[in-house]
Design goal:
Number of domains: 2
Radius of gyration: 19 Å
Largest sheet: none
Strand content: under 5%
Structural class: mainly alpha
Number of strands: 0
Number of helices: 4
Helix content: over 70%
Length: about 110
């Protein structure tokens, strides 16, 4: 009975640790998106900061996916699927050329 309690207690800590990791990654994604907004305001021409924020959004999104049970290929496949859907729809916010080049880059 003592061993069961120890395992259960350890599993509880593992679960809390994973939940904290997920929350930290979600916070980093939100902070990175806020950085995108800050870096895209008029009068803030630092292109390196903008690229850094974009890279952070991608990085933390992939890590969050991994932490919640998805492998990196699955996340890429979902992005490719969304690109294909956008290409066959009448979505006009992004050019087909941009979507096609992204699809090619991702191997869609």
């Amino acid at each position: 009975m003592v061993d069961y309690m120890m395992v259960s207690h350890k599993q509880g800590f593992d679960l809390l640790y994973k939940m904290n990791e997920v929350d930290a990654l979600k916070t980093k994604i939100l902070a990175s998106i806020a950085g995108l907004y800050d870096n895209m305001t008029p009068g803030n021409p630092d292109i390196d900061d903008l690229a850094d924020s974009m890279g952070d959004v991608l990085l933390y999104t992939f890590l969050l996916g991994k932490k919640t049970g998805f492998d990196y290929d699955r996340i890429r496949e979902e992005a490719c699927h969304k690109i294909r859907l956008l290409l066959i729809s009448d979505y006009t916010d992004v050019s087909d050329d941009d979507l096609n080049s992204l699809a090619q880059y991702l191997g869609a």
